[in-house]
Amino acid sequence: MTETVDESKRNRRTAKRILAIGLPLVLIGSVGLGYAYWTGASGTGSGNATTAAAAPALTVSSSVVPTNMAPGVGPSGVTVTVMNTSATQNVYARQVAVVITSVSAAGCDATDYVLGGTLPMVDAAGDLAPGGTATFTGATLGFNNKTGTNQDACKGATVTLGFTAS
User: Fold this and answer.
1) Considering Cα of 31, then 33, then 39, then 44, what sign does the dihedral take?
2) Bridge partner residues of 79 (DSSP)
3) What are phi and psi of 35, to 5 degrees?
4) What is the spatial order of strands in the sheet that 58-64 belongs to?
5) Distance between alpha carbon 81 and the CA centroid of its chain, in Å?
6) In this structure, what DSSP letter does residue 1 have?
7) What's this model's pTM, rounded to 2 decimal places?
């Protein structure tokens, strides 16, 4: 039995030696293979990205407009709301310009009215999310009392304003 124990010890020592010498060699070999694989690899490729085809649309509407304009009555403020109608894209709205586009009565025209204030109207609206709105103020509209001129043609006239948002 002593011979079997000695042989068993010898086998364990031999296994330990093989492991002590063999394991580092296997690790060194696999590092060498990994190094050769990574440094030997190369390639090329390409990819595409697409930007949106069209800019988001803005809808501009006047929510507050002067009424009962007449000689001697001061101008009133004009308030404009801008809405981003896009369902997916943000848009930056920084200003709204306003002009008189028409007057409904014959013999009465844009010179019979005064459009003043800050033009273009400016608001710190900034970035509008899809469906977002911003309010712009700063312009006024009133009746231009032309001294010595009969302006009866303007009674009941409707003044149409045009807005351009950018």
Assistant:
1) negative
2) 64
3) -65, -45
4) 58-64, 76-84, 133-143, 113-117
5) 17
6) -
7) 0.64
Residue 52 CB neighbour total at 10 angstroms: 9
Q: Cis omega before residue 75 (within 30°)?
A: no
Cβ atoms 151, 135 nearer than 8 A: no
Angstrom distance (rounded) from CA 21 to CA 39: 28
Residue 57: per-residue pLDDT: 80
Closest to 122 (Cα-Cα) out of 132, 114, 134, 133? 134
Low-confidence residues of the chain: pLDDT under 70 = 1-48, 50-56, 63, 117-125
Q: What Cα–Cα distance (Å) separates residue 85 from each residue in 59, 64, 118?
A: 7, 21, 26
**Residue 139 corresponds to which tokens in the numbers above?**
């312009």
What is the reported pLDDT for 150?
94
Residue 162 in 3-state DSSP?
strand
How much is the pLDDT for 24? Answer: 55
Contact 110, 98 (CB under 8 A): no
